[in-house]
Specification:
By secondary structure, this protein is an all-beta fold. Helix content is 0%, strand content 38%. It folds into two domains: 39 residues, no CATH class; 61 residues, no CATH class.
Length: 111
Amino acid sequence: MASNSVYSLTVAYWPDNDVKTANDCVSGVCVNGNWTYAYDDFNRLSAASTPSVGYSYDYDRFGNRWHQNVTAGTGYSVQLTLSNSNQITTAGLPLRRGGQRPEGQRQLLYL
């Protein structure tokens, strides 16, 4: 950001205080889009979208977010697998015994 840039984040909420929309802008230009969110009957995120990309989300029986599906535009799909111990086992997400991440390894997964 240039030194004279102004960052703004505007958030609107549903009556139950879930985030309804989020507008992320720099100097009036909303480069990250104007996000709109929807939730299921269990108050879990079920959809997120901008004018250019959309996602839907699925959950397993334990309430873990299981899939991130692209519903519009081009985005990142995430399909997780979970063990009987309710731990993520998807390749690329290394865990030690007990479920901890190996020392010194950092990997961000945005769901």
